[in-house]
Structures are given as C-alpha cells and as structure tokens.
Design brief:
With 317 residues, this protein is an alpha/beta fold. The chain contains 11 helices and 16 strands. Helix 7 runs parallel beside helix 8.
Length: 317
C-alpha cells in the first residue's frame, strides 16, 4: 500500500464531464458511489478526499457499545474474505458526539447511518435517536441475530423483515434504506416485505454465510465458526439478486457485493442498481471507492454513455 499523501494525490482529480448525479429516496448524490457499511472509518479520510464520493455509509451503530466477536474474526479465502467481527461499534451517543461532526464538515456529502440491534426495540431506539440529528439517511442492517428468536437473523424471514422495517419506519421520518441478506431462498420476497413495510430504498447484498477450516490444525479458523463471505467471489450472486429485485420492486437500489472495479460498478447499474457501494476493495486499499468512481467514468466514456440514468437503462435484453 502506498503512503497517505500518494493516495490522496492519485485520487484528487476532477470528475469527467459526465452526468454522474443520482437521487436516492429524495437525497441527491453527486455520483453513485458510496462506502459499504463496516468498511469505512474516520482514518480513511487520510487516504483520499471523501467529499468526492456520492455518499458515505458508516459502520453499524447500536444503542450501546458492542465489543464484537472474539478473535480470530477475519480470514482470507478463495475470491474474497470471511469476517465475523460482530458489528463492533462505539454506540450511538459516542458516534453522535465524536464522529458525526467530522463527517458533517464535508459539505454536500450525504451521511448514511447504518443501524443495528438485537431486538426490534433496539433498532427503533437507534433510529429515533439518530432522527434527532442531521444524518441524511438510515440504513437498516437486518442481518443481526434476533436474540428473542434464538439468534435467527431478522432478515432471513419475511415476517422478520416486515416487522423490523415497520418498527423503524414508525420511529423515524428519515429516508430509510433496508439492507437485505442473501442468505434466503427468495430475495424478491424479502424486498417486497421491506417495501410493504415502508422502506424508501434497498441495499443488497450483505455477506453470504461461509466457513473456513485449517486442514493441518484441523480447526475452524474463525472463533465464531462461521462468518460473512465478501469480495469478488460473490459478485455474480449480487448482480443476479439486484437484477431480480429491480424487476419486482420499484424502490431505489444500492448494489453491492464484490465490486472491485469500475466495470463491476457499471455491471451493477446495468442490472438495475441506482447506486453502488464499495466494501472489500476498500479493505485492500482504502482509496478504492474513488478509484472505482474514476474507472466507472472511464467505462462510461468508452461505452459512449453520458449519464448514470442512461447507463441504468442500457441493458439489452
């Protein structure tokens, strides 16, 4: 990895003469690229000018600090990585006090606060508290384990998606994005449930559940046993799910899952996404989101496409 000054120098170029603007649930972004939750921290700002992004999405925010899972909780694997970090976070009050003002200092950059909880009431409490702030949007992470249902994730049953979304919708007037889990039989059913419960937009996909075993030690690598698989290996799955959801639900979609290049981002938009989140690529090199933005612009120029709106409707079927 290069030093911070080098990365900022290489990513501080003006955007190409294209119409890159998008609008997600009434919030205008200058371009369609955001960070994926869990992959952005304030330290990232040393590597590139974050105001170049369309929006910034935070790590998960809970009612109180979460310590996360025991280590080891990250492992490399074919085509990506497994993580079982456990949504470690500093809690909503510390985040509002210490981190939100830093992000708000970047004028014109929408802030998307990702919210987590172990019960429906916890989700609603975080949403209500953040609604008292000037965050622009909320992203509801329904992949958390529901402690009242034996640890089953909220997002793996239609009823869980609907009930959690409805509770958060009641607690806030902020634009609400629901982040869908791919660990389901039919992603379209979950998307429809979120829409019916009042979601303003959808983001997909979250990580796929996976496991890695060290054959010589004969032990499971992660202390949590299983973890979320992300990276280029899941990209085709994400593209397929975005494509399916776009044809079933009219809400704006933020596509994510193994986006490593500008062409990957263009593929997501062709499949039906309105915007694209970059995650694992930014863990490899923090300035990946702006590199991918530049590559997306270059890809559009090569295709002879002048706007994100035109790209979204360009798929030949």
């Amino acid at each position: 990895m290069g030093n911070d000054a080098e990365m900022k120098k290489n990513t501080d170029r003006p955007a190409a003469g294209l119409d890159m603007g998008v609008e997600i649930a009434g919030v205008k972004w200058k371009n369609p690229i955001t960070t994926a939750s869990g992959t952005f921290t304030l330290r990232t700002m040393r590597c590139y000018e974050i105001s170049r992004l369309g929006a910034v999405t935070t790590k998960g925010i809970a009612t109180v600090p979460w310590a996360g899972n025991p280590t080891p909780r990250i492992a490399e694997t074919y085509g990506g990585m497994l993580n079982a970090v456990g949504l470690q976070n500093i809690g909503m009050e510390a985040w509002i006090r210490d981190e939100l003002p830093v992000l708000r200092a970047h004028e014109g950059l929408p802030v998307i606060a990702n919210i987590v909880g172990r019960t429906t009431d916890e989700y609603a409490e975080v949403a209500a508290r953040l609604s008292e702030t000037d965050v622009d949007m909320l992203e509801l992470n329904i992949s958390c384990p529901n402690v009242k249902e034996g640890g089953i994730a909220f997002g793996t049953a239609v009823e869980g998606v609907f009930d959690t979304t409805a509770a958060v919708r009641k607690a806030t007037r902020k634009p609400l994005i629901v982040k869908l889990s791919p660990n389901v039989t039919r992603i379209v059913d979950m998307a429809k449930a979120a829409a019916d419960a009042g979601a303003d937009a959808l983001s997909l996909i979250n990580t796929l559940l996976g496991m890695k075993i060290d054959v010589y030690r004969r032990r499971v690598v992660l202390a949590n046993k299983t973890g979320g698989l992300s990276g280029p290996g899941i990209h085709p799955v994400a593209v397929r799910m975005v494509y399916e959801v776009r044809r079933a639900v009219g809400l704006p979609i933020i596509g994510m899952g193994g986006v490593m290049s500008g062409e990957d981002a263009a593929e997501m938009i062709l499949a039906g996404a309105d915007a694209v989140a970059v995650g694992t690529a930014a863990l490899i090199r923090p300035d990946a989101p702006v590199r991918i933005l530049e590559e997306l612009e270059a890809c559009m120029n090569k295709m002879g496409i002048a706007s994100i709106r035109e790209l979204k409707s360009a798929l030949i079927e």
